[in-house]
Amino acid sequence: MRRGLRDRVGGMSLQNRLAFFAGVAVCLLCLVFSFLFLNVAHHAATLKLIDEVTADGELAAYYLEHGERVDPLPTIPPDLIRPVQVVDPRGRVVAASSDLRGKPAMSRLVPQPPRRTATTVVCGHVLAPGRCDIVVAQRVRRGDGEWTVYAAAPAVPFYVHPWLPALLLAGMVVFTGGAALGARYLVSRSLAPVAAVQRRLDDIRNTDPSGRVPVPEARSEIHFLAGSVNHCLNRLERALEEQRRFSTDASHELRTPIAAMRVQIEDALMAPDDTDVATLSNAVLPSLDRLEAVASGLLVLSGLDRGAGEQLQPVDLAEVASMAQGGRSWTKTVVDNLAPGVLVSGQPSRLRELVARLLDNAERHADTTITLTVRRDYERLAQDGGFASGTAVLEVADDGDGIPPDQRESIFERFARLDSARSRDAGGFGLGLPIARLIAESHGGSLTAQEPAPGARGARFLLYLPLSSPPGQR
């Protein structure tokens, strides 16, 4: 049964569920209030009744205390007529109101000194079968001993009066229904912007990927939710556009060497007797090298996008730069300015690859000289690419034609190349710099192309990484 109720409630809409729970909560509060109110009303009515019953017996007690006659009882005012009995010290009823004549004492309760009155509840007995009465006993001192005057009245029922629980029940129904309807209305009004967002998202999914959800003017939670949804949609649209552009560029990059190899092989097949294997191999190998480079670059990008790699460890940036230069034949002069002990937290193989790709790019475009610099910078501010613990800086500069200022950011897009001297003819394939930037960002740093140093020419790339030790540990 409990599970069935839970399933039915779980199947409701949000506004119906909140209305249901609001109605239940108000109903429970009304029940608690009604119970407390009836208790207070019953207690107050009982105290009032005790005062009235006490007043009934006080007239007989007055005459008895002053030695007046007690049988028959003194005349009782019409508004004070209650069952009254007078009992002598030996426990005999010596006087009683007309409805109790000839009956035993209604109670054996006797107030104990110093109290003069006592109250009890008597059910059935001489008063009325099946009914409970409040009995007030008053102790009266007379010459021959202690006398007792009893007065009684029917006890107040728990509900006090029939109209009181009926009124409370009607109020509970009204308040419960009002709370449920009010909660449903308020939730419906509050969720109206959410419904609009949902409808717009459905439209975006089905027809218009460039659309955006409406943002309510009121700066509520839904306002910020809609803003976050639009931000996610912006990023998603950019990612999809980049994915489409990347797929197109990658297809083009792969198709170019494949087409070149096909032409060379088809020419060889058309004149097999005139084809030298060594010549054909030498003609095809550059295209295979280019295919291998593109495939390798795509695999590296895939690993960086997934966050794959070795564990982070302290790395000397100068040692990484030295290792990236080793084992290769340089066509240009490399000038090293490597400060030792510049430690960063990173993956050594990734950082070597980053430096190697910057050096490859510089070697393709330098005229005669490449300058490689590693240094610390504790004064660089965060807005300038710096870090609170200090900044490790790696700089690669060449003396080539340089990069136009308006293209210094676009060169980091995948498969992007300039139409000038830094072009496809220089041997690049448009993934080196994007890979280098991704490696920098995966280490918490940044890689940018900036103005050449004063008095210099060419391209200048700056890598900023956080030092692995704070300034106090220089």
Automatic annotation (TrEMBL):
<keyword id="KW-0418">Kinase</keyword>
<feature type="domain" description="HAMP">
    <location>
        <begin position="188"/>
        <end position="241"/>
    </location>
</feature>
<keyword id="KW-0808">Transferase</keyword>
<protein>
    <recommendedName>
        <fullName>histidine kinase</fullName>
        <ecNumber>2.7.13.3</ecNumber>
    </recommendedName>
</protein>
<dbReference type="GO" id="GO:0016301">
    <property type="term" value="F:kinase activity"/>
</dbReference>
<dbReference type="InterPro" id="IPR036890">
    <property type="entry name" value="HATPase_C_sf"/>
</dbReference>
<dbReference type="InterPro" id="IPR050428">
    <property type="entry name" value="TCS_sensor_his_kinase"/>
</dbReference>
<keyword id="KW-0472">Membrane</keyword>
<keyword id="KW-0812">Transmembrane</keyword>
<dbReference type="InterPro" id="IPR003660">
    <property type="entry name" value="HAMP_dom"/>
</dbReference>
<dbReference type="InterPro" id="IPR004358">
    <property type="entry name" value="Sig_transdc_His_kin-like_C"/>
</dbReference>
<keyword id="KW-0597">Phosphoprotein</keyword>
<keyword id="KW-1133">Transmembrane helix</keyword>
<dbReference type="Pfam" id="PF00512">
    <property type="entry name" value="HisKA"/>
</dbReference>
<dbReference type="InterPro" id="IPR036097">
    <property type="entry name" value="HisK_dim/P_sf"/>
</dbReference>
<dbReference type="InterPro" id="IPR003594">
    <property type="entry name" value="HATPase_dom"/>
</dbReference>
<feature type="domain" description="Histidine kinase">
    <location>
        <begin position="249"/>
        <end position="469"/>
    </location>
</feature>
<dbReference type="InterPro" id="IPR003661">
    <property type="entry name" value="HisK_dim/P_dom"/>
</dbReference>
<dbReference type="InterPro" id="IPR005467">
    <property type="entry name" value="His_kinase_dom"/>
</dbReference>
<feature type="transmembrane region" description="Helical">
    <location>
        <begin position="20"/>
        <end position="41"/>
    </location>
</feature>
<dbReference type="Pfam" id="PF02518">
    <property type="entry name" value="HATPase_c"/>
</dbReference>
<keyword id="KW-0902">Two-component regulatory system</keyword>
